[in-house]
Amino acid sequence: MTPTLVRQHRSHADSTPRVNLWARARDWSEIQERMLVPLYETVHERLEVGPATRLLGLRCGSGLALLMAATRGAAVTGVDSSPERLALARERLLPDPALSARARGRAARIVEGSPRAAADAQAPAYNLITAFDPIGCLAGDAERLGGLLAEATPLAERGAAVVLAGWGPPERCATSSVLRVAAKLADPLRSASSWRPAGRDDLEEVAQRAGLRIDGSGRVSCPFGYADADSAARGLLSTGLFDAAIAATDEEQVGKELAEALHPYQRANGTVWMPNVFRYLIARLR
């Protein structure tokens, strides 16, 4: 099956794909986001995230990483520009206001907009900033992350940890071969948001440009496993990595070629399994 996207007429001047943003956010939350759980767990364990942690999550999406930190006792704030994903994050993190203060438990804030909107003069400065949305597969994503860090780091205390995440080497990421579909189809647009192979030093370059001191790194196995090819396609489309391809061609063409690219990873029982490795970098504010 080809995932359902909302078809609307586009003029040549408007190359933005028209998609059902609510459905895509739900697919991200229910299908794709959990693929990064090993990354979240590894970082939280390494940094001993707990009751003393005041965490600011950049591009927090539907909030799974924040929820995992909150269950360890951390006070968490999530920032994103997607109202659809943030609505799902609120469902996860913000309890029923009718509950008593005791029942509400951990502190959590969800903020739409830029990191500057996460400033809170009534609370201590953040001591951990995470950017778990992996960079390294979209042209210009390192620069966009650098802009977010420039707004976020003034909100953190000196010595605070900053965690950046990215795709591992293409030869260790089975999904890279599937994502090349996005690059091939988007090429006519030469889009600033088209897919590109991950670079070896993407994370280090972002940290250095942000004036951060590098303090460690690691790699984590994050296999992408799906119940069937349709779920795999929906999950991958929810990442936004195919948006430029949809804009350059159409959603039907992208869906057809995506299904073909997924075929080698489909098992006899219909499930799809793609081993991947992701990198994380720990840096510190000077």
From TrEMBL:
Keywords: Methyltransferase, Transferase. GO terms for molecular function: methyltransferase activity. The keyword Protease does not apply. Its EC number is 2.1.-.-. SUPFAM superfamilies: S-adenosyl-L-methionine-dependent methyltransferases. This is Class I SAM-dependent methyltransferase. GO terms for biological process: methylation. The lineage of its organism: Bacteria, Bacillati, Actinomycetota, Actinomycetes, Kitasatosporales. The keyword Membrane does not apply.
